[in-house]
Amino acid sequence: MKQQEEITLQTLADNEDIQIGYSDNDIVVVDCIQKFTEVNTAHVAMNAIVICTNGKVQAQINGQQMELHKNQVAIVPQNVTVTDVMVSPDFDLRGMFLTNRILQSFLREKMSIWNDMMYIHRQHIVTMDADEILFYTHFYDMLTLAIAKGKDNPLHTDVIQSLLRSAVLALCGAMKQMLSADTRLDGSAALHGKEKQTSKVHFQHFLDLLHSNDVKRRTVEAYANELCISPKYLTAVCKKNSGKTANEWITEQVQENIRYYLRQTDLSIKQICDQLGFPNNSFFGKYVKDHFGMTPLAFRNS
């Protein structure tokens, strides 16, 4: 099995090879990672925003190829698996790792832009021009000063979080510009005005539920009930906004969880079955066989 690391707030804070600029219960700001080359596979439990400050890195995010160069920003949603990591000898990065709770508090109603970027268009790279690089350089200098000089301030955490929120909002603006240039964002001509906005809100709420639930293998009806809409409407909303049905979204997320737990952890089949909410090993085995074409043990060893 490949070397695998679970990247959480705690593992970042405890790793002596990672230079931490700031950390609290929801945020870790990383100044540099010197031994990133040793992490071949990682499960990123938080939302990550990282800027390549030198060199380049190649990796796969849930099987999707990503290449990050100097002065590019990678945006990675929570609970994804990063594999096949290859970096140049001079690679380094700065970044922030955020819990979903703090990200939602930062973005509020603009969370839909993040979800569009991550889950609909699956774009994870933002390239910065010279002016944007200058802005973020000055911002980072201000953040560094606030971290170093303001520890005795009773509102120290609020100051840091306000600065970080400004940076995340600025990045979100750049993401919106990218999405606005994508004709797919126009959606279906059948949706207009308020109806289109309502549809999008319901879709975003569905994604929030789907990604926040530990057990994702639930029926469309179960998710629809939590959203107080009909299963038929939820399926239509998903299809209109992403081209995939609600059931396809659920199945995709369940399969990604199975792939992660079988390939990247040492949990027993019974433990994985329980973790993912399957009623028994036999049902889990049949599900894996139907969707991956082999038994759970064969898939783990493949």
Please outline the major beta sheet.
6 strands, antiparallel
**Secondary structure tally: strands:** 11
Q: Kindly state the mean pLDDT as a whole number?
A: 81
Strand content: 15-25%
* Subunit organisation of the chains: single chain
Q: What is this structure, in a nutshell?
A:
The chain is of the alpha+beta class. It has helices spanning 9-14, 100-107, 111-120, 130-149, 156-180, 193-212, 220-227, 231-242, 246-264, 269-275, 281-292, 296-301; strands at 4-7, 18-23, 27-33, 41-44, 47-54, 56-61, 64-69, 72-76, 80-87, 92-98, 125-127.
Task: Describe this protein with a few key phrases.
single chain; 302 residues; alpha+beta; six-stranded antiparallel sheet; five-stranded mixed sheet; 11 strands
Q: What can you tell me about this protein's structure?
A:
There is one protein chain. By secondary structure, the chain is α+β, with helices and mostly antiparallel strands. It is built from 12 helices and 11 strands. The strands form 2 sheets. A 6-stranded antiparallel sheet has the order 2-3-10-5-8-11. The protein has a 5-stranded mixed sheet with strand order 1-4-9-6-7. It is globular, with a radius of gyration of 20 Å. The N and C termini lie close together (10 Å).
List the helices and strands and how they pair.
Blueprint lengths: L3 E4 L1 H6 L3 E6 L3 E7 L7 E4 L2 E8 L1 E6 L2 E6 L2 E5 L3 E8 L4 E7 L1 H8 L3 H10 L4 E3 L2 H20 L6 H25 L12 H20 L7 H8 L3 H12 L3 H19 L4 H7 L5 H12 L3 H6 L1
Parallel strand pairs: 1-4
Antiparallel strand pairs: 2-3, 3-10, 4-9, 5-8, 5-10, 6-7, 6-9, 8-11
Helix pairs in contact: 3-5, 3-6, 4-5, 6-8, 7-8
